[in-house]
Specification:
It contains eleven helices and 23 strands. It is an alpha+beta fold. It has two domains: 216 residues, UDP-n-acetylglucosamine1-carboxyvinyl-transferase, Chain (Alpha-beta prism), CATH 3.65.10; 210 residues, Enolpyruvate transferase domain (UDP-n-acetylglucosamine1-carboxyvinyl-transferase, Chain, Alpha-beta prism), CATH 3.65.10. The strands form six sheets. A four-stranded mixed beta sheet has the order 21-22-1-23, with helices on one face. A hairpin with a 5-residue loop joins β11 and β12. α7 packs parallel to α10. The longest helix has 13 residues. It is globular, with a radius of gyration of 22 Å.
Length: 433
């Protein structure tokens, strides 16, 4: 277990170039298995999940050469082989499920471990994925501790309508559709920036996709896929995180951002706490004219709200970041997670700082901000952005605080502590057995 020690109370100042979004990088890595041609990827972050996938590629006979200094990855799956009796996909990593379609396309069989999972955000079922596999002609059966997925001669194109706009199910549909001969359509598709980035990579390989960025995708499958080069965008989660860190500490942080078109709603959400975000020449900055202040709605007897749901709503993954702002800002605000049923259980840890937070139900909570806060030792669940939110609160309080079990941060942010130090924070990792 890794813990973060922070000596807070220092305003953060400086410039940051964020890493790529792991939720774009991981599905792209899975998709590379579809082609036998060489690939070069730029901006690949040195994070735990990337290392796990590269390890499985190498164990299957693929050539994977990673330069962690430059973030350049050379991949060639020409000599790859998969044996379901011997080879195991990475466990404790949600994205493993996106290796199934490429393995089906290349080898006709895939094996998925029962304990594949990601952050502890509540129930995250695999049934929508199983349904997609079956719709394309896959046969799914339970084996000892795993699921086996097999296909016949070829995957068949389908028209499918998702129960809800799931990111990984959308990506799995596109992967299956790319390998199926013919035209497949998906309604109620996820459209998050990382899904769009994944689809752009698929088009680079030679897959024709219509409707990128909308809730309806049309995929023309069956074409021979090629190789090429692809550069990842900066992670909008990390951009927002460092802007929020600057705001909550009363500092001035400027963050590289090549896709400000993704930020209008995020910018307006910052504004609800008295923070103004500006975008200029590929850089973004958050500033406040004074202490953070929850803006009062024009409607009487209504709290300022942050409602998080699938894109183009405010992103669910960023909700903890703004809960931290709500704790520090003068005034009251309501936060509503419309996706996960177990994602707000961590907020009791905020009371250890002296924060006043009321849980209305499993999906909603209210912050009563502006109370004096003191340093504390807090425990993070296995949720990336929650560990960061607890760190944000600690960084805004003068004195020594500790975020225990902050390991999830390493899954998404390869140089988190180094970046923080460059902004003036006294912070360090400690480990416990």
């Amino acid at each position: 277990m890794s813990n973060l020690i922070v000596h807070g109370g220092t305003p953060l100042r400086g410039r940051i170039t964020p890493s790529a979004n792991k939720n774009a990088v991981l599905p792209v890595l899975c998709a590379t298995l579809l082609t036998r041609e060489p690939l070069r990827l730029f901006g690949v972050p040195d994070i735990t999940d990337v290392r796990k996938i590269l390890d499985i590629f190498r164990s299957l006979g693929s050539d994977a050469q990673m330069d962690h200094t430059t973030g350049t990855l050379d991949l060639h799956h020409r000599d790859t082989a998969f044996d379901p009796a011997r080879d195991r996909l990475p466990e404790e990593m949600r994205s493993s499920i996106m290796l199934v379609p490429p393995l089906l396309a290349r080898f006709g069989v895939a094996r998925l471990e029962d304990n594949v999972k990601g952050c502890t955000l509540g129930v995250r079922e695999i049934d929508p994925h199983v349904e997609v596999f079956r719709r394309f002609g896959g046969e799914v059966e339970r084996a000892s501790g795993s699921l086996l997925v097999r296909r016949g001669e070829r995957l068949s194109p389908v028209a499918h309508w998702l129960d809800y706009a799931s990111v990984t199910t959308t990506e799995n549909f596109v992967l299956c559709a790319a390998a199926a001969d013919g035209i497949s359509t998906l309604t109620n598709a996820a459209s998050e920036p990382h899904v769009q980035e994944f689809c752009r990579f698929m088009t680079m390989l030679g897959v024709r996709i219509e409707g990128i960025g909308t809730s309806r995708l049309t995929v023309h499958g069956g074409a021979a896929l090629g190789g090429g080069e692809f550069r990842f965008d900066e992670d909008f989660h990390e951009i927002t995180t460092f802007l929020a860190l600057g705001a909550i500490t009363g500092g001035d942080v400027v963050v590289r951002n090549s896709a400000p078109a993704n930020f209008p709603l995020i910018d307006r959400t910052f504004a609800k706490f008295g923070v103004t975000v500006t975008h200029e020449d590929g850089w973004s900055r958050a500033s406040a004219s004074g202490p953070l202040q929850v803006q009062t709605p024009f409607t009487s007897n209504v709290l300022t709200k942050v409602e998080a749901a699938p894109w183009p709503y405010f992103p669910v993954d960023l909700l903890p970041i703004f809960i931290a702002l709500g704790v520090r800002a003068q005034g009251n605000a309501m936060f509503w997670n419309k996706v996960y049923d177990g994602a707000l259980g961590w907020t009791g840890e905020l009371s250890k700082f002296g924060a006043h937070v009321f849980s209305s139900d499993p999906h909603r909570l209210i912050t009563f901000g502006g109370s004096p806060l003191t340093p504390a030792v807090v425990e993070s669940p296995y949720i990336i952005r929650v560990a960061i939110a607890l760190f944000m609160v600690a960084a805004s309080i003068e004195g020594r605080s500790e975020i225990r079990n902050a390991t999830p941060i390493r899954r998404a942010h390869p140089r988190f502590v180094e970046n923080l130090r460059s902004l003036g924070v006294q912070v360090e990792w400690t480990s416990e057995e």
